[in-house]
Amino acid sequence: MDESRGQRLLRRVTAGIPPREEPVTHVADLPGRAARYAEWPSWADPAVVAALRDCGVSAPWAHQAEAASHAYEGRHVVISTGTASGKSLAYQLPVLSRLAAGEKAKASVRGFRVAEPSARGEAPVVTALYLSPTKALGADQLRAVSSLDVPGVRAASFDGDTPMAERDWVRAHANWVFTNPDMLHRGILSAHGRWATFFRRLSCVVVDECHSYRGVFGSHVALLLRRLRRVAEHYGASPVFVLASATTASPASFASRLTGVPCVAVTEDASPRGARTVALWEPPLLEELTGENGAPVRRSAGAETSRILADLVLEGARSLAFIRSRRGAELAALGARRILSEVDPVLSETVAAYRSGYLPEERRALEAALLSGRLLGVATTNALELGVDIAGLDAVVLAGYPGTLASFWQQAGRAGRSGDSALVVFVARDDPLDTYLVHHPEALLSRPVETAVLDPANPYVLAPQLACAVAELPLTLPELEVFGGSAAQEVLAELTEQKLVRRRSSGWYWTSRDRPHAEVGIRGTGGEQIAVVESDSGRMLGTVDPGSACFAVHPGAVYLHQGSSYVVDELELDQGLALVHAENPDWTTTPREIVDISVLSIQEKQDYGGVSVCLGEVAVTSQVVGYLRRRPSGEVLDHTPLDLPEQSLRTRAVWYTVSAALLGPAVAAAGRARASSAASAGCGVADDSGDSAGSDGSGDSDVSDGEVGTGGHRVGTESAGPVGTGEETQANGRGPVREGGRTPGGAGLVPARVPGALHAAEHAAIGLLPLFATCDRWDIGGVSTAWHEDTGEATVFVHDGHPGGAGFAERGYAAIVPWLAATREAIVSCECPTGCPSCVQSPKCGNGNEPLDKAGAVAVLGTVLGALRQHGT
Ligand SMILES: Nc1ncnc2c1ncn2[C@@H]1O[C@H](COP(=O)(O)OP(=O)(O)OP(=O)(O)O)[C@@H](O)[C@H]1O
């Protein structure tokens, strides 16, 4: 069979790599597909069809026509198809047709029935609202609509950048308003009276890139859309919702949860797609470098990506590399340029970086240069992921898993639309999730894209949102259903008690003259924001959630803003201020936290013979105690202690307990001694916004709660059997676990090994939860302890990092078996001997990644999974 272009590119980028450093763990060839067209719908306005034809769209693809017809006929619809599958046209066609028809009707106002013309017939008859998660995407979409130049359509943006002078014009005259959730919340719903005419005519709401509304932000947006519907209804309108999403599992149920109205889904993608060769790539371990506690370090994904990008450019392939941080994108571009300049200085000019913070004109110029081939290699953050019309590239390199499968396919989808085969390379970073993925291609390439998690019933989100709703319009009892029924009633009772709202027989009323909107940030859950200010100039660079301030802007932290780098000099929590100066050091910082956790209530509990799994509410107390400085290579420079106050967080967690008997006979014996002496409490030493390994479980701990790194908890040297041998392998979440050499049904651990085993199991579990819960590992934390005073047993907690939770713990609870099976597999797959960042080390462990017992973690997880499978799930 002939070699395809994608395969040839892969052969070129791997040429010359010695066999012992072979980085490619898997190659898949994904076939291409031809386009399927439909007729223009009979209802489509001829002027709109003509404008689209002029832009090169001769006919709609089948999925576009189907989604557009649902919307035009008044059915709420979500279109969930691949990258560059023309989702924009699916909403442009019905919205523009409605707007154009309304304008024509208005033009003949005397002769025809018109919905409700203004006295002089000037106001639009129908209006539409477009919402995007970012201003940049909104601006791109507005530009696309404006360029169609359909008669009677007055599209305008209304966001933080809209000059005051223009705002009145937009309110009075625009019939399609492009905005974002933040502005809808603060600037439109809070002053809906000024938008009365617009709301009265509101016929359609477009929610673009809706899969990005997840977690706390997603929960806020879900309630915001309910507020929007209520206000529209107040003015007599009931708009149809059209949502566009990357491909995702159960789009209809997600869209219905987000909007609160039943949505139909269009998922069959009829756009053409080129074939792609996908390679999974694990950078080799470095011999000359070691990381924390002497652990081996892999070549960094960024350095590897620079090299691959340079090779691709040498092949003349138009390529895009996605890097997670802006700084990383700059460094990857620089690295590729440096390599190319040694070959041919002219070639180094064909590589550039691209990230947010660039002006729209700069972005347009970069996009055009890449499409024309003047630029061959671009290293970018996910700024290029959403809504940018770049497709049909020869190659895409992803440096690290972008957090969700939706993002993975969105980024990978930039390659290969031109009909020719293209190359996608996924380069694993040094962490458990990436390691798992490169060794389990089916988890990356064959799984349906996860549905986004959100929880509009979170009281920490519901309370401020209900306050805004009541302030907008008094809330009546029947309306409560829209906001979550009894959960909303409980929250309202609290607001009434705080005298923020007043209860009357007709409903709930806002008591103050001031509106709550300005106080409610919809992208997080914390009260007053901390302002990040440049000392020299007094310029405010941005804000940070108070809950994460100690973490993100502690003294000494490197803070990145729009690609520029700053170092924090002071953090004044009382004054809500972090003072920084511009500096571009050659290292990054990672904070270290210690954490303690207590159980407030148990919502769900399942027992599996010595193992129990719970979901419930917890109180997490955390304290940032220092930070590490690391070089981009992963090398740790030093650790600096910090003295910062404790933070507390009420949130939700999933946890499992393991009985002493299952951990091992020696642990059971020591546990009896502990019970009789009642000697000590479990302590929490943390990581990832807190995970912890605590007392050694032997009953002789004198560690006070929350102390870091107190001695005596070393990983035992005896081994529970080799890690990563064939006997340990198991199917992903299925099939029996064979625990070679251990007591059947038990982990066979001695007490001294329990803390390290649990700690390692917990780190890896935090790393793998994002595979099941659409969250980032930084959105969650964990605590592990050989004995926890609330459970009375060895316990591993994984908790949401936001007040009230964002639904991640629930997902962990629901997916406990596949999640823990994947966790175990990730550890087993890693070839390092005793633990490294690819498996059980965590980048922000409060206890300096001590103790960690990799083999013990495999034993504990095997035991837990054995119990879960034997006794239930
Ligand atoms: N029916 C069609 N025939 C030909 N080209 C089309 C058709 N529909 C859309 N296009 C073109 O396909 C490209 C991608 O469209 P669009 O940006 O709307 O896709 P998308 O699915 O929204 O992309 P993203 O995944 O980036 O959100 C655009 O250049 C658009 O003009």
TrEMBL record:
- SUPFAM superfamilies membership: P-loop containing nucleoside triphosphate hydrolases (SSF52540)
Would the keyword Glycoprotein turn up in this protein's UniProt record? no
* All copies of domain Helicase ATP-binding, residue ranges: 68-247
Which CDD domains does the UniProt entry name for this protein?
A: DEXHc_Hrq1-like (cd17923), SF2_C_Hrq (cd18797)
Example of a GO biological process term: nucleotide-excision repair
Q: Which Gene3D superfamilies match?
A: P-loop containing nucleotide triphosphate hydrolases
- Keywords per UniProt: ATP-binding, Helicase, Hydrolase, Nucleotide-binding
Where is composition skewed (Low complexity) in this entry?
681-701
Please state every residue range assigned to the domain named Helicase C-terminal.
308-460
* NCBIfam families the UniProt entry points to: DECH_helic
Q: What is this protein called?
A: DEAD/DEAH box helicase domain-containing protein
Q: Which organism is it from?
A: Amycolatopsis tolypomycina
